[in-house]
Amino acid sequence: MMLKVLGLCAGYGDIPVLTDLSLSLGKGERLGILGHNGMGKTTFLRSLMGFVRAVGGSVVFDGQDITTLPVHRRARLGLRLVPQGREIFPDLTVLENLRMGELSSPRARADSVEEVLTYFPRLKTLLERAGGRLSGGEQQLLALARCLCGHPSLLLLDEPTEGVQPSIVEEIAESLVVISRDRGVAVVVVEQQLDFISAVSDRVLVIRKGRFTRQLGKAELRDPNAVAQLVSMNA
To answer: Which structural domain range is residue 214 located in?
Structure first.
C-alpha cells in the first residue's frame, strides 16, 4: 500500500480540524476528496505533507511511518504538494521553473523536464515566457509539471481547477489520468468541482467537519442517481 492513514487527528493550536481520518491508497490510485470550504480538505493535505502536525493517529508512506517527519524529508521520500494558488516563480521562465522542480529532488533524472513536457505539450511553446505572464490555467499546468519534474510517487493537489478556464481543466484531468497510469503516481486531489473530480478519481471521499462521511467508487461516479445525491450533499 502506497499510503495508509489511521485515525489521523490534526488542527491549529487548540482548534481541532481533523478527527479520526483513515484511508488507504495504492500505487497509481487516484483519490478525490470533495467538500465545502472549511471542512478540512486543505488541512488534510497539509497534514499528509507535514505542514500541520498530527496530534493523533498515524501516516505510513511506502511502508515507513512518517507521522513525525518534517516536510523536507517527506518530499525526499516522494510526496509532493501542488498548493492552492500554485506558487510558481513569477520572474523565472517556464523552463527555469521546471528546472527548479528538477533540482529540488534527489529522485529527479537528467531527462525529467523533457519527459514531463510530453504530458504538457502546451508548455513547450511557452518555455521562454516568464511564469508571471502566463494565464491562470497555464500557471496551474506549470505548477503541476514542475512538481512532476521531481518524480514524486504521491501527488497532492489542492483545488487545481480554481481560476482555470474549462479547456485547461479538461487538459489537467486527462494529463493526471495518463501520468498516473504511465508512471504509477498515486494522486490525492481536493476539489469542489464534481465533473473534474469524477473524471480524475478512481473513488471519491466526502469530507464534512473534519470527518470522511461517504465514499463513492468508479461505478457509482458513473451513476446519475448517485452523482445527484453527491451534488445535493455538497450543495
So the answer is: 3-234
